């Protein structure tokens, strides 16, 4: 129990700007273990802009939580935590940070609760699937490489891309038929974005760089779709996610090129 108590003390005594430092110490818990190399990378990658970014993000998150609790914003606490964990998860994915997985799992759990309360059982089931993929991605990123080493950024092979494309087309067709039967406002586009998102999530679990192409595609559709449905705030949020995806694609390409040069 001693190590868990020390982690809790660090969580509440470190400054808000030391988010990554806190995560490093949490990683010493056996079930959340991250190898020494990864912990060293956290220190090396942190620059002033990142510190400021995490600080601003922390402040905004605290304000959202307080605002929801006090009734200042028309959002429940579950929605707020879903928003916070979702944004943080995308950013950590951009940075190839292993902590995108536990935070992404938490994000999906929040949405499972939210959709259960709203009786949106199809959306709830989709997020249960994201939880399963989250645990798979967490394991594969840590032990999916050669000799159970850390998984590196790689390109998807033709066979995997072929069966994912076929599965995506079949899913889109089936989901469109179902959504039409329940009078969904945009059955085809909702089905298509869900299919693309699932393909992108699987590619992400295997650290295939092509996952960013699929996220970019689906985010472009989501932006137009949410504005069409008059969900302007959500549309703006996905526009931010879209920009982060372009950054992620650029950063992952750099990582891949560095790894290839190192192998040569």
Helical percentage:
over 70%
Unreliable spans: 1-31, 33-44
Gyration radius (Cα, Å) is 19 Å
Strand content: under 5%
Compressed to H and E, one letter per element, the order equals HHHHHHHHHHH
- Overall spatial form: globular
Mean pLDDT figure: 77
Structural features, described:
This protein is globular. The protein contains 11 helices and no strands. By secondary structure, it is mainly alpha-helical.
Please render the helix and strand layout as text.
Elements: H1 2-13, H2 19-26, H3 36-45, H4 48-70, H5 77-94, H6 100-117, H7 121-143, H8 158-181, H9 187-205, H10 211-228, H11 232-263
Helix pairs in contact: 4-5, 5-6, 5-11, 6-7, 7-9, 8-9, 9-10, 10-11
Task: Name the descriptors.
disordered N terminus, 264 residues
């Amino acid at each position: 129990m001693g190590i868990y108590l020390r982690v809790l003390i660090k969580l509440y005594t470190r400054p808000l700007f030391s988010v990554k430092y806190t995560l490093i110490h949490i990683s010493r818990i056996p079930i959340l273990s991250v190898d020494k190399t990864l912990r060293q990378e956290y220190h090396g990658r942190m620059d002033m802009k990142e510190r400021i970014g995490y600080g601003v993000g922390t402040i905004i998150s605290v304000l959202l939580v307080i605002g929801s609790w006090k009734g200042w914003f028309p959002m429940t606490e579950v929605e707020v935590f879903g928003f916070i964990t979702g944004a943080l998860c995308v950013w950590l994915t951009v940075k190839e940070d292993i902590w995108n997985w536990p935070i992404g799992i938490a994000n999906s759990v929040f949405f499972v609760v939210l959709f259960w309360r709203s009786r949106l059982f199809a959306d709830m089931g989709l997020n249960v699937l994201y939880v399963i993929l989250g645990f798979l991605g967490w394991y594969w990123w840590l032990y999916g490489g050669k000799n159970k080493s850390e998984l590196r950024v790689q390109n998807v092979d033709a066979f995997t891309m072929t069966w994912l494309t076929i599965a995506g087309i079949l899913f889109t067709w089936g989901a469109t038929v179902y959504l039409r039967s329940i009078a969904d406002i945009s059955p085809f586009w909702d089905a298509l974005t869900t299919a693309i998102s699932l393909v992108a999530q699987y590619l992400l679990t295997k650290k295939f760089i092509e996952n960013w192409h699929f996220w970019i595609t689906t985010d472009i559709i989501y932006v137009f779709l949410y504005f069409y449905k008059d969900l302007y705030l959500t549309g703006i949020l996905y526009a931010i996610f879209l920009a982060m995806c372009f950054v992620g694609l650029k950063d992952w390409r750099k990582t891949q090129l560095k790894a290839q040069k190192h192998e040569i």
